[in-house]
Amino acid sequence: MNNSVSSTLRLIGAGLRALLVLTVICGVIYPLAVTGIAQALFHDQANGSEIKDKSGQVVGSSLIGQTYNLPKQNPDDAEEAVKPDLKWFQPRPSNGLGSNSINMQYSLILSGATNRSADNGAKDGKCTDEVEGSLCAQVIAAKEAVIADNSTAGHQIKPEDVPADAVTSSGSGLDPNISPEYAKIQVHRVAEQNKLDVKQVEKLVADHTTGRTLGFMGEPRVNVLELNTALKALTKS
Prior knowledge:
The protein has helices spanning 2-41, 43-46, 135-150, 180-185, 187-194, 198-207, 224-235; strands at 50-52, 58-61, 122-123, 126-127, 177-178, 209-210, 221-223. Helix 5 (187-194) crosses helix 6. It has 2 domains: 2-45; 50-235, no CATH class. It is mainly alpha-helical.
């Protein structure tokens, strides 16, 4: 009986010592080491890839897209009724989860794609807007809006100028980047709205265009938040 109790106590003691050692290693030393390495070598990424304006205030993350809309005229207005603020570069559409209102306008509750096929809403092999709420109807409406919003008195946007990312949301619906082509068709409108020279805005886009990762992965891209932060500094608005 005594031997049994002693063995049990030794096992309990060994278990407690192992628990204490593993708690210190896995719960204290390892997290501190990983945090220290992350802060030393990957400081920006470890802190959420924050973007700051010229005053040092955090305006967002380079990993999450934002919208640039005019204030609601009526608080009860649906998000779909909100109009874009045309003095800013606009991001991709953010209707990743369609009309269920969960992921409207870059809400971080959920993210996801529409899961609609490319011919959703098509008729006789052609994309039409006859089926309300279909992908085809969304793309057609978005394309018309892009042409109307970005055409100025001296510069008319042609339908063939509109790239795919201007009228479709990304797989997550939270894409922070747009293609250089989409940024370029917004240049004249942004210049006009902010009373800037077109060449100034073109240079701004060129300066904030990132090439393919390692020269071969992905596509060239422009981070909209970074671009608009630089635009704000340029206009001092």
